[in-house]
Amino acid sequence: MPTKIEVQGLNFYYGKFQALIDVGMSIKDCTITAIIGPSGCGKSTLLRCFNRLNDLIEGVRISGSILLDGVDIYGGSMDLTGLRRRVGMVFQRPNPFPLSVRENVAYGLRVHRGLGAADIEAEIERTLGRVFLWDELKDRLHRRATVLSPEQQQRLCIARALAIEPEVLLMDEPCSALDPAATQGIEELIQELKKRLAIVIVTHNMQQAARVSDEAGFMLLGELVEFGLTGQVFTNPRDRRTEEYVTGRYG
Fold it and tell me: Residue 230 belongs to a domain with what CATH number?
């Protein structure tokens, strides 16, 4: 698969604290990339660098580069709205808008894609179908999204992100608030979605990373210790620290 995101010499600071240290990695298109590591190691910070959500935090600094299809997203010509349309994000806990199911999807279609009413209705059906919610909710589209089950809410948040047709989907612990059955459903959905876009998932659940990802990176204290094919990282790691973490002797 071609490279979608190329990270080169990335350093990130919260004030004087360095959260990321000379990180370099390549994220391939139509591939699931998992980022693992203990709490506070920089996983979520790295994820938020990919669509520049960290820009919203006062006092941060960054050096190095992140190339999206060969263009540095921290370059002066990068349009942030366009970037966040191309690089969508799903957060740890489901956060649907306090609106109807329909409006959660229609908002992005209307604002970011400028679709008319007839096209919006067709696209709502298509988008909810992609996350396997259409059959469940087609008769309840005017129901408030916040009363759905946690899994349905998370699927709806994924649908909301997909509605604006991103090229990359970032997922920060997307199953941490879900039970095992719901987690399985989200994992099956992720596998289906990778046919169309690049997915980067941050997870504390090493079993999940091993199940769903094609490539994996292990982070420790802001450093990307190891990155490669998931099978290699989990069964034949090159670095002793990776082996200690994946075998449960550390973290």
Answer: 3.40.50.300
